[in-house]
Amino acid sequence: MQRIPPKFVRDFGHELSEDATLAVPNGRPWRVRLKRDEGGVWFDDGWYDFAKYYSVSAGYISIFKYGKNSNFRVLIFDFTACEINYKREEGSKLDKRSRQSAANYSFENFKAKHKYRECEPQIKKCRKEELVEKNESDDGGGGDIEYNLWDLLTEMGICISKKHRAFSTEESKRVLKIARSLNLKYPTSLIILPSSSITHNRVYVPATFAKHFASRDAKSMEVRVSNERHKFMNMNVCWRENGGFALSMTELVEDENLKEGDIFIFELISKRVAVLNLSIYHL
């Protein structure tokens, strides 16, 4: 799933139906189901197929232009912040009006309207790299910037606790490097271990991740630790009032010599049988 920004939902949510249509330049329209819950509005059924078809990976940037009646024009940019080459299915047909509409929504047209910067080889920069550079020029890396790292991770589909909304410059660099390396296939959560997790042998999974992807009935979860041994662990689940949950990890703390600042990447491989994949990035 992909969350639609809350500000857009506040302004236009009343216009959105149960299904949305996504269209890229010179491509066929994609029908995507919209899901509404207390966390907002999400592109749900059909989003994965759309992202897979255009090889959208973690770190890609998508620009959505809303055209009323739940119709969106979409531009997709790769790691270098340059527009991708859009594929067309064999034998797909667009009528004259659709072809003209797609052509009118090319990136050249978009640049002209919005004074977008030319993407030249010598200045190819990922939008996220620009963000880190801007953070470095701010006082603490968590200043008032147009897009903070927390928002960017959320747009990428990575759940993270709001407690980590303010990142230091060094944390931003580490998190950004890890996020760019991920090939997201499953619901994902990123956690920076605080000292309390080490002291109490518990890791707290964000409520945004738990509410949307985990089953409240789960009493324990099987966790596959992605290391040299690919060890499986059964961790007890303690549900919290805010909707998140804590995993007991006494054995993991000892086995992996965990320390404050280590980064966990949880991927929910199966909601039905409660299986998580865990990748650990040591400080």
Describe what this molecule looks like in 3D:
- This protein is an alpha+beta fold and 283 residues long.
- It has two domains: 2-83, DNA-binding pseudobarrel domain (At1g16640 B3 domain, Beta Barrel), CATH 2.40.330.10; 146-281, DNA-binding pseudobarrel domain (At1g16640 B3 domain), CATH 2.40.330.10.
- Helices cover 29% and strands 27% of the residues.
- The protein contains ten helices and 14 strands.
- It has helices spanning 6-12, 47-53, 96-104, 107-114, 127-137, 149-155, 169-181, 195-200, 207-213, 250-256; strands spanning 2-3, 19-23, 30-37, 40-43, 61-66, 71-77, 158-159, 188-192, 202-205, 220-225, 232-239, 245-248, 263-270, 275-281.
- Strands 7-8-13-14-10-11-12-9 form an eight-stranded mixed beta sheet. Strands 1-4-3-2-6-5 form a six-stranded mixed beta sheet, with no helix packed on it.
- Residues 90-147 have low confidence and may be disordered.
Layout of helices and strands:
Blueprint: E1 2-3, H1 6-12, E2 19-23, E3 30-37, E4 40-43, H2 47-53, E5 61-66, E6 71-77, H3 96-104, H4 107-114, H5 127-137, H6 149-155, E7 158-159, H7 169-181, E8 188-192, H8 195-200, E9 202-205, H9 207-213, E10 220-225, E11 232-239, E12 245-248, H10 250-256, E13 263-270, E14 275-281
Parallel strand pairs: 2-6, 7-8, 10-14
Antiparallel strand pairs: 1-4, 2-3, 3-4, 5-6, 8-13, 9-12, 10-11, 11-12, 13-14
Helix pairs in contact: 5-7
